[in-house]
Structure formats: structure tokens, C-alpha cells
Amino acid sequence: MKSQVHFLLTCLCLIVAAPDMGLAEDSKPIDFTTQIRPILSNKCFHCHGPDEAERYGGLRLDTKAGALGETDSGLPAIVGGSLEESELYRRITSPDESERMPPPESGVVL
């Protein structure tokens, strides 16, 4: 479970940072549409998707602008190339159940 979370967040950070990283010609970039979006869609969009009436925390993960933007807390959800600075990573890996995403009571497991 933690490896899937780490993979997802690493991919998100790489997608954001990839244009600045100068990827080698033979390396295949991570494809958001086929590799990342399905996980976010199945696990996160219910609360952080396109429906503004159902959205929590000011976080919209179905668009790049939303994923890179600030949350209601004023912190950036994803910081390209830096898991440690990404609020999304911190919340997913938090040992504090009151901060953890998805919330334990949601029944959603990453």
C-alpha cells in the first residue's frame, strides 16, 4: 500500500518537474493520463474532483493547475520534484489520523 502511494506521489512530482529535468531521449516520461489519473480518479476525485459542490479542502486533483495550486491551508498540494514540500504527500503519509488522506473513516484505501 505504501509503495503504491509513494509511486503515485513520485510520479506526480516527476510530471510537474519533468520539463525542467531534461529527460534523456531514451527514457519514457510518466504519462499522467494512463498512469496517474486512473488512481486519482478511483481514490481521490470523489472529494477532490471536478464537482465544486462536493470538493473538500480547496483541492482539485483532476487538473494540473488544481494539483499544483494552493489548498485552503495555503500550502501547495504538489511541489514538483519535492515530496517533502508537497502537502499531498505529507497528508497521505501522516501518522495522525485526523490529518491523513484519505480519511480512515472514508473506507478508501490507497
Write the layout of secondary structure elements.
Blueprint: H1 2-21, H2 32-43, H3 45-48, H4 64-68, H5 87-93
Helix pairs in contact: 1-2, 1-5
- Beta-strand share of residues: under 5%
N-to-C order of helices and strands:
HHHHH
CA-based gyration radius: 14 Å
Distance between the termini: 6 Å
Please tally the β strands and state the result. 0
Mean pLDDT: 82
Major β-sheet, in short? none
Structural domain tally = 1
Proportion of residues in helical segments: 40-55%
Q: In a few lines, what is going on in this structure?
A:
By secondary structure, the protein is mostly helical. The chain has one domain (2-19, 29-101).
Written account of the structure:
It is built from five helices and no strands. It has helices spanning 2-21, 32-43, 45-48, 64-68, 87-93. The radius of gyration is 14 Å and the shape is globular.
Give the tags.
single chain, 110 residues, mainly alpha, 44% helix, globular
